[in-house]
Amino acid sequence: MRTARLRGLWVIPVGAALALSGPAQAADPDSEIAALTQRVEKLEGTRAIKKLQRAFGYYVDRGLWSEAADLFADNGTIEIGVDGVYVGKARISEYLERLHGGQQGLIYGQLNEWVTLQPAVDMGADGRTATARWRDLGMTGQYKKHAEWRDGIYENTYVKEDGVWKIQSLHLYVNFVAPYEKGWARLRQGEGVAQSEASKAFPPDRGPTATYASFPDRQLPPFQAPNPVTDRPVREAR
Fold first, then answer.
1. CATH number, domain at 171?
2. Is 150 exposed, middle or buried (0-12, 13-18, 19+ CB in 10 A)?
3. Which domain holds residue 138?
4. 110-166, pLDDT tens digit by residue?
5. CA 76 – CA 235 distance, rounded (Å)
């Protein structure tokens, strides 16, 4: 009897709550499914974009230029510092190769670490485009010859083609490239950013799309994504 009473006490309030909720508050299954699907696609897209960008860093680390270029859309672009814009997989692959010694794979004694940190991915409303901002930390050099630090910010775009996420544009705003022994604190004005020999010998398809300043000057690469809390554009402090 006691069990029956407890069950009765449980059933009555639940039934009353359902009755009070009424048909107006009943969930629309189709809307819920659509919302959940959109959420899952956004989460999966964010994860795929992080994997994509990390793959680029690992491939460039070890001189896999063609593999890195294959991560781009057919009309994808790359822009590193003041070197200008290269368009298309073939041009991107050759530019990366020329930038790092002129051969497939690294040359003997070459260090080429592209450490990519602090991903901030912003998915487009269409679920097929996205932007992402990353921190670049570079450790480059040649055994017993030279060594450099590099610092910068990526502001990239991505596109989903035939169900696969690809890099649409990779844009690295280089803050400085500084000799390891000398360090960035002793750079002369404007010394930290210069056009590479690869870009001079292998001209880009388009010139630089931004005006670059190097440390100790202040440079704030523009944010493509809004503030995630206020949803307002992020502006440089004045």
1. 3.10.450.50
2. buried
3. 31-201
4. 999 999 999 999 999 989 999 999 999 999 999 999 999 999 999 999 999 999 999
5. 27
